[in-house]
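Postdoc handover notes: sequence design on the structure in folder B. Input tokens:
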């Protein structure tokens, strides 16, 4: 069980909920980081008194230093600051809940500093899965999933005596706000429509990823690395109610599911208390109040991002990095109203043929591929 934590991305949706869990479980906080939300970070520092606080930019770090002059908290900045927070002496666990592949280097730093990882930043495994899992093994650290689907699978696996008995993983997907729509319909959707998720309240980037089903594609890749499972044995089913958080199927056709109300505090807490379970501040699941649970095949033709993620794993090497990097760049352009919703899927798909697919041997290979994907998107959109 976690006793002392460093939270990378403490002002986001996962970070704020994680701090509620820490408060309840009396977990000490040694470092907190935020990209830009200085007011909330200041408030969190005053409450949790970490040794270190990190802001995304030099300008904001300067301001935070002035605001926190009456405290003992040191303020650092940027990616170096994130890495410093990832390796802070006192913490036994690092929760990575930053947005995007910027989480990769700090995660590797935390692993090298022998910290267990509570992983909410899926882009880390999507882009650097081979490096991260190898390094975790070498350093003897554990990676506990915070993503609700992966936490569900992790929970289901607690009763699995031997992985040989496992046939497949079944990830559930809510289907997002555009379930049942055609590719034509999606061409004209607005930012506001895409930001309206039916079941989960999350940050902007992951909400757009959920609408495009890129999120589920990223989660398939994340599951591949976390559970060392080939992608052709990871299935996706659309489950509109978000009650079944994911399932595993054994060779005897028995299926084990993890269920609960859609509240991220359950997977966050389990990642921090594993292998123990303690009371959690979420509603109980009342099965008699559910009218039905529905399951559908995903529409791979309409949701090109989901298709692209599967294809990226067939291509291997840097292909998932290209899919992720082009998506991060494209989502930003969509939120800035520079491209249409379906442009996101087109750019993600095209990035994998625009850049030569190489193998990943080092972190630099990942960073180079990410940059190439972003440059591809920039040049494709400016044309
Ligand atoms: Mg998820």
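Designed sequence:
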């Amino acid at each position: 069980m976690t006793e002392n934590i460093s939270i990378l991305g403490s002002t986001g949706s996962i970070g704020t909920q994680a701090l509620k869990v820490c408060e309840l479980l009396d977990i000490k906080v040694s470092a907190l980081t935020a990209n830009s939300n200085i007011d909330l970070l200041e408030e969190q520092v005053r409450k949790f008194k970490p040794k270190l606080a990190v802001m995304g930019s030099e300008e904001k770090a300067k301001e935070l230093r002035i605001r926190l002059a009456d405290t003992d908290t040191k303020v650092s900045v940027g990616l170096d600051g994130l890495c410093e927070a990832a390796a802070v002496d006192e913490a036994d666990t690092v929760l990575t809940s930053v947005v995007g592949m910027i989480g990769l280097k700090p995660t590797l730093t935390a692993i090298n500093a022998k910290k267990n990882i509570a992983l909410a930043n899926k882009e880390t495994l999507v882009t650097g899965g081979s490096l991260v899992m190898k390094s975790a093994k070498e350093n003897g650290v554990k990676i506990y999933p915070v993503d609700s689907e992966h936490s569900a699978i992790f929970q289901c696996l607690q009763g699995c005596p031997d992985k040989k008995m496992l046939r497949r993983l079944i990830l559930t997907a809510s289907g997002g706000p555009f379930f049942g729509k055609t590719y034509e319909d999606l061409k004209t959707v607005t930012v506001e429509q895409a930001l309206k998720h039916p079941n989960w309240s999350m940050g902007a980037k992951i909400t757009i990823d959920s609408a495009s089903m890129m999120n589920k594609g990223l989660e398939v890749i994340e599951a591949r690395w976390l559970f060392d499972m080939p992608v052709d044995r990871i299935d996706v089913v659309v489950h509109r109610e978000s009650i079944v958080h994911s399932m595993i199927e054994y060779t005897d056709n028995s299926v084990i599911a993890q269920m609960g109300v859609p509240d991220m505090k359950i997977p966050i807490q389990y990642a921090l208390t594993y292998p123990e379970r303690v009371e959690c501040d979420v509603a109980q699941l009342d099965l008699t109040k559910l009218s039905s649970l529905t399951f559908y095949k995903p529409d791979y033709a309409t949701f090109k991002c989901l298709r692209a993620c599967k294809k990226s794993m067939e291509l291997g090497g840097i292909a998932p990095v290209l899919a992720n990097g082009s998506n991060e760049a494209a989502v930003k352009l969509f939120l800035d109203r520079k491209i249409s919703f379906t442009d996101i899927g087109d750019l993600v798909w095209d990035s994998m043929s625009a850049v030569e697919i190489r193998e990943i041997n080092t972190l630099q290979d990942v960073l180079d591929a990410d940059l190439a994907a972003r440059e591809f998107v920039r040049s494709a959109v400016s044309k």
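Context for whoever picks this up: The chain is about 45% helix and 15% strand. Don't rerun without checking with the PI first.
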